[in-house]
Amino acid sequence: MNSVILKAGTRYLAGLLLVFSVYMLLRGHNEPGGGFIGGLIGATGFVLYAVAVGTADARAALRVEPQSIAMVGLGIALLAGLLAALFGQPFFTGQWLFLGATETDKGLPLSTVLVFDVGVYLVVFGAILTLVFAMEEEI
Amino acid sequence: MSWLLAVPIAIPFATAVFAFLLRNGAAGRWVSVAGSAALLAASAVLMQAVLAEGVVAGQMGSWPAPFGITLVADLLSAVMVVITAIIALAVSVYALADIGPAEERLGYHALFQVLIAGVTGAFLTGDLFNLYVWFEVMLISSFGLLVLGGRAEQIDGGVKYVALNLVSTILFLTGIGLLYGMTGTLNMADLSIAVDGADQGLLTVVAMLFMIAFGVKAAVFPLFFWLPAAYHTPAFSVSAVFAGLLTKVGVYALIRMFTLVFDHDTGLTHTILLWVACLTMVTGVLGAAAQGDMRRILSFHIVSQIGYMVLGLALLTPLAIVGAVFYLVHHIIVKANLFLIAGVADRLTGGTALSRIGGLYASAPLLAALFLVPAFSLAGFPPLSGFWAKFLLVKAALEIEGWVIAAVALAVGLLTIYSMTKIWAQAFWEPHPEGREPRLSDLPAGQRWAMLAPIMALAALTVFIGLFPEPFVAFAERAAAQLLDPTDYVETVLGDRG
């Protein structure tokens, strides 16, 4: 597609969508959101870019093959589950670290649950882009 | 305990990741072989634990049953995981010769390992919704494998395959939703208690939904037509692992649900299963008789053999369940092996259409001998594994004076021999129509052994089970006892609830 308006709009929108997707990923911890929806939104950014300027440029901007991103995501999600083994607990038991916790304040909670969600984000992001790029190139 | 159950699922996933990242070189295929070997080791450890301690259960993420996802292995689950690992190893070695670099670059090994993860997950889960998730994992990866290569007939078979399996998925989900609404739980062990207080009429309706959903997966009459439409199109490694494992997950799910949860009205549900089983056996074998392509004949035989396993479940006597469990194990080995052999025959003679190939007996006698073992076993010749499997089931039918059922089972065995003879006569005995003399030595040595070693190992296993059936029957008896009296299963899963 060759549309100046779309191209100009995409320049802002694609970046916004990517930032928003990370926000959704992190927000999902206690509120609606999470890796799945974050991955979808992130993929939308690149889909928009691919529609505006073509898949070849979108692939170049992504730098890595989307399939590989999805598989690395699968590996990260798996690793999040396997980490429980280090603490002698069942598969996928969440491990928590409260940064700067005091008696009254929980501090910043970090967990393997977040690592798992990052994995999900990458799986969804990579899988959607694999499909969309393939279909865009088919047309 | 719980890691024993999680590792057989985690290994194929990890293997898939590494195999995919290394897909552009030769390393990927060896990662796949190593992963399958590791899976076999892990499943052997699991089997040992189940043999020693009875049912093993683990609560994933430390969420207690029935709230979290429980993985649980009784003897049936354990043996299915072991056999899955055996087939995975055999097929990943075979794939060294069968799968070309083009398919590898598209991610064949990763898809294959994800499929294996889906199969082991389905065998190990104790949660109904989680079972649905594993079915989806299998469906997605198997669709990828089916259309890898992108030939028109592959897409054609793949679309039929996915369309019908989606119908099954929707029915499965509907059933899950209704069951959850009625009982408030999806943990299978918890369900087996909770359904006692439910509306029995509605429960029968739900049971029917599950029967159709799993029936599509298992390819029983009249829901089997997606199978012969799809299984003859992909690479031979792919159709071998499909033929060995995929439909058997459906049979496993039927056996699990209709012994553990839906045993409230066996007069209705298991009578329907009995009819379905007999019709599946007959239509499958008649369909096979009408085909003229090696892989299509073998595909229809899967359908007919599924009938025997469902028959064991339908009769629901201790001996019949023993027969069904024994049949499952025997069938997976034999069927995967026949497809692997068809792959070698294709490589040597240039096709699988029986009218266009031939001459294998004269020029490749080793392959002919290797074909005879699973072919005779499938038809039920003594002293091979199929004989004992059929013997147990026919004996179970006679015990409850089901003369007609026994007669059908025997007649179908006879017809199986008929179509095996057809393959034997046209592919092996008759000379090649173009006068070719296909020899095994035509293949490069590395490829030859990558293909023949798994075939030989599986054939040896068939002969071994046939010659020494006693420990296997004793094992099947223990597995059947667990299925018919699930107290141990239920207590182990829910035990931690306190």
State the main characteristics.
heterodimer; A: 139 residues; mainly alpha; two-stranded antiparallel ribbon; 6% strand; elongated; B: 498 residues; globular
Could you walk me through the main structural features you see in this protein, from its secondary elements to its overall organization?
The complex is a heterodimer of chains A (139) and B (498). Chain A is mainly alpha-helical. Chain A is 68% helix and 6% strand. In chain A, helix 2 packs across helix 3 and helix 4 runs antiparallel to helix 5. The termini of chain A are close together. The model of chain B has no long low-confidence stretch (mean pLDDT 88). At the A-B interface, helix 4 of A face helix 1 of B.
Q: Specify the oligomeric state.
A: heterodimer
- Structural class of the secondary structure composition of chain B? mainly alpha
Number of helices of chain A: 5
Q: Please tell me how large the radius of gyration of chain B is.
A: 22 Å
Enumerate how many helices of chain B there are, as a single number: 21
Overall pLDDT score of chain B: 88
Instruction: Please give the order of strands in the largest beta sheet of chain B.
Output: 1-2
Number of domains of chain A: 1
Distance between the termini of chain B: 18 Å
- Poorly predicted regions of chain A are none
CA(first)-CA(last) distance of chain A:
12 Å
Structural class of chain A: mainly alpha
What fraction of the residues of chain B are assigned to beta strands by DSSP?
A: under 5%
Number of strands of chain A: 2
* Principal-axes shape call of chain B: globular
The biggest sheet of chain A, with number of strands, parallel, antiparallel or mixed sense and barrel status, is: 2 strands, antiparallel
Number of DSSP strands of chain B?
2
Strand and helix map with partners:
The complex is a heterodimer of chains A (139) and B (498).
Chain A: H1 4-27, H2 35-53, H3 55-62, H4 66-82, E1 96-99, E2 108-111, H5 112-138
Antiparallel strand pairs in A: 1-2
Chain B: H1 2-21, H2 27-53, E1 56-59, E2 70-73, H3 75-98, H4 101-105, H5 108-124, H6 128-147, H7 152-183, H8 188-194, H9 200-218, H10 226-230, H11 236-260, H12 266-289, H13 294-315, H14 318-349, H15 360-363, H16 365-379, H17 385-399, H18 403-429, H19 445-467, H20 469-484, H21 487-494
Antiparallel strand pairs in B: 1-2
